[in-house]
Amino acid sequence: MPKALTGAPSLLNVDTLASLKTALGEASLGQLVMLYQQQVSNYSAQLAACLAVKPFTPEHEQQVMRLAHQLRGESVSMGAEQLAELAKQLETLANTERATFSQLDEMFSTIRLTAAHTHSALERWCRDHLSG
């Protein structure tokens, strides 16, 4: 199990979401949450495709690093702290010369699971805090 799950940051930073709600308004935040969830889904699909290619080359490692970096940035912006931390770890791991394909694949599996939990948590937060 990757180390991120022990002592991990919270799944969602509710202060970040509350700040976004204040700054953007409810309707815009709802749209942003939907866009974020689509982006996470797209990044996951691209990462899965990249990790499915054999042989796994340095170009694939660069692609994993880029996608993980983008996922991290968008997750930080949305308050998805745990997903952001895992994406950071994947980015760092992909940048390590000694990283094995199985390590990258295991980290990606953890990211997919955390993304699903984050999606559910965002849905609950929107139901509880946004009207409409």
From TrEMBL:
InterPro entries the UniProt entry points to: HPT_dom_sf (IPR036641), Sig_transdc_His_kin_Hpt_dom (IPR008207)
Residues of the HPt domain: 25-125
Keywords linked to the UniProt accession: Phosphoprotein, Two-component regulatory system
Pfam family, one: Hpt
Top-level taxon of the source organism: Bacteria
S-adenosyl-L-methionine in keyword set: no
Any GO BP annotation: phosphorelay signal transduction system
GO molecular function: protein kinase activity
Modified positions (Phosphohistidine) in chain numbering: 69
Name the record gives this protein: HPt domain-containing protein
Organism this protein belongs to: Vreelandella sulfidaeris
